[in-house]
Fold each of these.
Amino acid sequence: MSSASTEDDDVPADTTGGPSLPRPIRFISPATLNLHRVYEQNRQRLQKKDGSKVPDPTTPQTKGKPRLLLMGQRRSGKSSISSVVFHKLPPSETLFLESTARIQKDSLNSFMEFQVWDFPGQIDIFDNPNFTFDMDAIFGEIGALIWVIDAQDDYLEAVARLNSTILHLYRSYPHINIEVFIHKVDGLSDDYRLDIQRDVTIRIQDELSDQGVENAPVNFHLTSIYNHSIFEAFSKVIQKLIPRLGQLEAMLTNLCRTCRFEKAYLFDVNTKIYIATDNTPEDMASYEICSDYVDVIIDFTEVYGSWPRSQQWRERLEGEPWSQPLEEQVACEWAESGMVLADARRPIMLREVDRFLALVAIMKEGSYDKMPQINMNVDVVVKGLTEFFEITKPKEVVGPAQGLASP
Amino acid sequence: MGASPAAGSAAGDSGGPAAALAQLKKVKKQKVLLMGKSGSGKSSMRSIIFSNYLARDTRRLGATIDIDLSHVKFLGNLTLNLWDCGGQEAFMENYLSQQRAHVFSNVGVLIYVFDIESRDVERDLATYVNIISALVQYSREAKVFVLIHKMDLIQPMTREDVFDHRAALVRRKTAEAVAIMHKQKPEQLQAQSQLQPPQVAPSTAGGDLSINLQLFATSIWDQSLYKAWASIIHDLVPNLSVIEAQLASLGLAIDADEILLFERTSFLVVSKWTSREGERNPYGDRFERMSNILKSWKHTCSKYTGTPRNAEQFSDFEYKMGATFSMFATKFTTNTYILVCMPPGEARFNSAKLNVAAARPWFRFLDGPVVPAQSAAGGGMSSSQVLGSTPSGYSGEASVGAPEN
């Protein structure tokens, strides 16, 4: 499936469109959200606590991009996780991944730009005789530390290392979110999973409170790359990094109420992470079907939408009897889609918000007849979302373009 | 993945529309042998294609004992007699000796599965040669499909080389087996003069020393399985020329870029039509990809709704990708789904949906042997029968711009 995905990155270019094209068929939307502002705040807060330790804001070239650190014992599945979630590697092919020898840094351009650092498991960064790591460079702008524990292995050592890591970090960087992924749970029974989660939680909390650390920001997730749980866990992690998440959620909740949606998600299309949902209870099943629907749409788009049509084709379609440019023959310039499930005729709808985000919703049965009305409501919400990202986008531009932005 | 030689397309289609229409009445039965070493994945692939198993569900399957006979109804007017032959050596010997005539006579298609990870390649090939000999002896006309299976276990970089190497080996062995059979031919023919139809005279048979062989690299974990099975099915479908002609007229009438016709349960591509513009699509593997995508979507739906896997899961799907393209997939006849990919435009889209609905009667023959009155009018649908919601003169214009077929 992923065989051609690399070619998909430069999808929108319609190179043979020729001079008469008023604009490219698909264009890059401006709504790229990055979290510079939040990080600036974090940094300043840190600066108050221990001034000298904070990195000079001008030096790191990666400034402004939140960073996710993947750490854990060797062979716990860190590289597999990042390949599956961020590079769309089919889970079955992670068998062939080599062990990671050095810190693997990936930069991701999505609805927000962030970095994923994959640490080799065999190196203890706090206690390494050969090489001392620059702690500030690593943890200075961190968005979240993800600690991966192999649930099918003996995890006592992993838990001990995690504890010492938390203790190291807690002193200098108390705001780091620590997310523990209890990983590879696909082979385990439900009861056993919960037992492990309970056991790990207790071990960590006991140890931390023994050391006088109370209420450390540690969260636990049960994950596996063979189902949607890894994406859901990442969704939770990423949501914590989103400024004004509450307002996004309120917007979606409102939409669900007015249109009688069962559940609505705002997806990051590239990673299938959802960045917001309405306030009805969490429901893994509806996340799964929505996320698979995004997959279906991505696949169709790749096969039928990623290559340029000929000029001739376009001229014929814009000529008599239509006599209109193609752009004006369509109702919506972004992708829109709907599907009716056979049981109870529940529709699912998808609407692209911009290049990176898509709104996916499951509707209540029988609402297919009201699609036109629903479409209008969705239009309004999509407009609202676009404005939202316009506003939360950082005002100043980092780097050489700064001079342009200031006047 | 692996390039295979283009086998001669369906042989029986040369009779013209009249003969093809006469065929509509017949329900075709085809004997399909599924063979290969024990544990090579025969039953797994059968379950995935015809019983909607998920790839990971196939772990539950046990070994097949002797021959597992199943009748798969495909499109209403084709029944596949699927002989899933257990691959343990004792069974194999039995097929080749006591049951030889029973197993190998009247075979339409032999599907032979090789496990790429097998340790004893020589032995596998020896068994294969025996099977081929038996097949040539009893069913000379049978098509042979060799699936080199479990390719997912090979590193992606080397897959092509490994497959090419193995394919060459299989080809050579097949040619050898056939050649040997031809040398023995005179005695063989005498021995089975009762079994073999008399027209297979040594003089004509000696002309072609090869059998119709196609090789595929497959894995249950990706779309390659659909590619192989779609070509297996393709030649078996009766009235293929009628379906193709009617799809083409429909495609021209609604100005589509591509139309795919899927069988309902297996989601294998039964037939397809592509416009000249659609031919420029760089994704040559898109047909099996569509099968794979829609089938896994079906699984998702069945998981969500809690309905049985084989049940119908979705009825209407539409997708408009801004000013790039639009597409819709919908339930077409009782046994088929249709997927239409077309240029953007709301008016064009809506009229195409109506026209596809209006075209259903022309394809009703797919559901059973009964010939509906409309399709007797011939392969060509006159444009006056197409619903008039397109602007006037539109359909005529479309056919001017399109290639004459």
Note: Chain B is about 40% helix and 20% strand.
Amino acid sequence: MAEHHLTHKDLVKAWVLSYSSETCYNYERLQALGQTNQMMSVVTKLYDTKEEQVAALKKYMEFFNTEPSWIGTVIHGITISMEEQKANGAAIEDEDIISLRTGLMGPMAGIGDTVSQAVVYPILAGICCQFALQGNIAGPLLFEIVYKALMIFFGYNCFMMGYKQGKQAIVSLLQSGTLDKITEAFSIIGLVVVGNMAYSRVAVKCPLTFRSGEVKVVVQDMFDTLLPGAIPLIITLLVWRMVNKKMNPTLIILIIFIFGIVCSYLGILSAA
Amino acid sequence: MILSAILVALLATGSQWWFNHLITRTWLYPLWSGFLVGVFMGQPILGMKAAAYIQLTYLGWITAGGSMPGNLMVAGIYGTALTIISKADPRMAVTFAAALSLIGIVQNTAYMTINAFWVHRADKYLEEGNLKGVRLMNYLPSGILSLLLYGLPVFLMIVYGATWSQNMIASIPKSLANALNLVASIMPALGIGMLLNYIGKKKLIGFFFLGFFLTVYFKLDTMACFVFASCVAAVMYYFQNDTEEAE
């Protein structure tokens, strides 16, 4: 049997196709069909007969879900390298590939979602919104360009790293705790920036004033002297508490609607 | 008008039918998708501002494991389109977007549920050795489904919705407009709360307060906070490595 090797072009093609993993996104098996679609390009290169191709593809129809565009691509890189070795006679069982994929999809989703959704997205969107609100068209353009550039940089390199270094490298990286430390460093940046946004974006003030004799008391001035930003901070912490109590986001939105409308009509709070 | 509506409908379709994340990944986010709506409808600046206000509501929203706490795509695309056709104040549009995004949960759930049928068909095709059929199942039926669930409603809204939406906006009294403005100002707290819940471990939560009070007392903007936070994170990262080596 002739050796089957993937060229760089095959790998790039598989990487691009991996970005279709959520095209037919569904509750039952999430990214499974999309992954099968991706592996089709690889498997048809590696196996000659239709029977072998079908047998190889079947394992990708199993439930699969990870972070798809930034970090999770590393799993596809590893999978493809294992599939290539298997096609060339290495003693790799289908179960090995399935268990590796199932084992890595959780941790990679954890890191990938932290980097992409908890750090890059809010920071970039927060900064770009400032431009956009000033009427500067650079806002959305910068968001699109920087987001995609970072996504492609991470996604491509993780994919290729997975392919070249295989599962050992990733498993040892997981075990050494390096990934946790990187996640933590990203979290610190995310938290500081979110703290900034809690003050600058939750723009709420208290319009109440009291009159005691000749003295006019402006409640907001009292807050500003004692603890500026107290109102946005309290609101943010209360909402966080609700999220933390696993309250349904839909319910929280409804509560915010009712709370806001009531407070506005009572004259307790207003938009700053 | 019709052309704008068609373009927005296609955008809405792709905002859920992620045919390739190299293109569609950012269609999820109101700032970009809403801006595109503005461009397609010939109102890029208004669209961009509405999109930015909507986006601020959803900072920190995390969609993981296929769950979606509110429909970001509907908020961004439908919200911006509604702002433009109703000639509303972009700030006010935020509350409509939030309301629409709740209805959008139904669209998202329907999409994710019905798509499972195509997966079963793909199983069958794979069994028969029909690889083209499998590939077709990945792309085609989900695309048509998204066109119906996401594209068609926004198309109808843009073509037929101008009059009623303008009447609706005009009928809102000043006091309610103020109240909705307040709601819009509180809404970012939800995204922030979600984010804190996701990354706010006890030992790190001090950094949230650091960012908050740096902004209160020193008036730092987001970019400045990002720069200082990066420095702190880098120092922390290398210090941790040092202490480990010392042990």
Note: The mean pLDDT of chain A is 91.
